[in-house]
Please model this.
Amino acid sequence: MTGDSPLKIGERRFHSRLLVGTGKYRDLEQTRQAIEASGAEIVTVAIRRTNIGQMPGEPNLLDVIPPDKYTLLPNTAGCYNVEDAVRTCRLARELLDGHTLVKLEVLGDEKTLFPDIPATLAAAEILVGEGFEVMVYTNDDPIVARRLEEMGCVAVMPLAAPIGSGLGIRNPYNIHFIVEQAKVPIIVDAGVGTASDAAVAMELGVDGVLMNTAIAEARDPVLMASAMRKAIEAGREAFLAGRMPRKRYGSASSPVGGVIGD
Model:
């Protein structure tokens, strides 16, 4: 994108600001096609639910998202306590030959999938101390976001709405406050339902958006992946361009003086 800088996470740089997941697709071939259409460079993988080599003889996700083409982001989806989350990240590092970039999520409720913030803070502290580059899923609390940044997380990932809900950006003001104070990338994670939601998130000034269900559960996932790619780019350009001020009354697009016939 002209005039824009790359997305920097730790020491890594990326051109795409769309991050995608790998769950809920019909099969591995559809997964491959959708990820390609999205243009994403970072692909997140649920270690507890997906085979990336720990189950020999079964279909391996790495056959369709090779690590030499994509940056894999192992995540701790399905973890409800500190011990499971930390153990899952250590397993990912072992399976991926020392890979340290991980997405941490410690859930507190099976129905809403909201994060358990005290457990998230505790797990983040352990993982950062062990040399992991932690991208962390959290709620949209600016104070918690700041605390996670201060602990050394390389990106903070506030939810826009509950995971898999497709409700869109429910609290843009909190997201805006988090962006204003942040010195690390802010990636909206969870809640996007369609392309307009992704554009709105980017217009708030976030550095990227991570999504899975919005693409995988669309009627045509590959086409939706393409739409999301364009929405992310359009929202980013709109943010950089700066929207016009909101006004109480309209004004003419053309000056009223000097028209023909005056």
In short: Strands lie at 7-9, 12-14, 18-20, 42-46, 71-75, 101-104, 133-138, 155-158, 187-189, 208-211. The CA atoms of residues 68 and 83 lie 30 Å apart. Helices lie at 28-38, 82-95, 117-129, 142-151, 172-181, 195-203, 213-216, 221-241.
